[in-house]
Amino acid sequence: MFPILISIPHGGWKIPPEVKDLVVLSERDLFDDSDPFTADIYDIGDMAVSVVKTEIARAFVDPNRAPDDLPPKNPDGVVKTKTCYGVQIYREPLDEEMIKKLLDRYYFPYHKKIQESLKNPEIKIAFDCHSMASVAPEISPDIGMERPMICLGNVKGQSCDYETTEKLREAFIKAFNLPENEVTVNRPFSGGYITRRYGNKPVPWIQIELNRKLYLSEPWFDRESLKVKKERLDQLKNMFIKTLELFFS
How far apart are CA 130 and CA 153, in angstroms? Predict the structure, then answer.
């Protein structure tokens, strides 16, 4: 068992039943806004001390945002009005009562699981695990830019020291057989709300971003059915496990 907590906040695809009748997103819009199949890649079960994940799509409740990060100030906040590609989510805006209901049922329980897990002294480091679009969407500061295969974020040294982060970077390079420049630190992502909130308090946290090009591309991915070949997801999971073995060796 690895002495780690794994958080997978954006791996869900489900629509909360409370808002199902208000949603105007297509299945593909929902797919493009989420981190598809990240639970299949990062959830290593009882090989980790703890795994925290959600079935609810980030389009509806985003655990990787502050609870007061709300629209209209931020359409990409904890409860969103638009996807990261600018597609409208709801037929009409949610009222305050519904927003509170969504947070109480799906947001705060996610963070409670993290907080309870972090009480376990067996956990020595935590990873917040994501996937990223191969080319940055319009909502991102690096809009239109090609992204590396893997990005590690340590909030510029605040959530985890650079020595530990570099050890993980080298493990990813070896396990995924990538060139040095394809595994970056803090570029384009230095770490989201979860990594910033919990990092080094007292356990170090690193945000991990896998480029979707690693599996949402030919020959593994069928764009019509939105399905990925299981053997590719299994392969990536095994590469992630190999990364952890190298990191802890």
Answer: 11
Task: Find out whether 14 and 53 touch, Cβ atoms under 8 Å.
Answer: no
Residue 74 has pLDDT above 90, yes or no: no
Burial 65-94 (b: 16+ CB within 10 A, else e): beeebbbeeebbbbbbbbbbeebebbeeeb
pLDDT in tens, 168-194: 999 999 999 999 999 999 999 999 999
Tens digit of each residue's pLDDT (9 = 90 or more) over 116-159 = 999 999 999 999 999 998 876 666 666 667 899 999 999 999 99
Q: Which two tokens stand for residue 198?
A: 């919990």
The residue ranges of every structural domain in the chain are 6-248
Q: How many CB atoms lie within 10 A of CB 111?
A: 18
For residues 156-185, one letter each, b for 16 or more C-beta atoms within 10 angstroms of the residue's C-beta and e for the rest, the string is eeebbeeeebeebbebbbebbeeeeebbbb
Does this model's pTM top 0.85? My answer is yes
Fold for 6-248, please state it.
Aminopeptidase (3.40.630)
Distance CA 29, CA 238 (A): 29
Helix (H) or strand (E) holding 110: helix 108-117
How far apart (Å, rounded) are the C-alpha atoms in residues 80 and 134?
A: 22
150 close to 184: Cβ distance less than 8 angstroms:
yes
Closest C-alpha to 165, from 197, 201, 204, 192: 204
Mean model confidence pLDDT for the chain: 95
Q: In this structure, are residues 34 and 55 in contact, taking their beta carbons and an 8 Å threshold? A: no
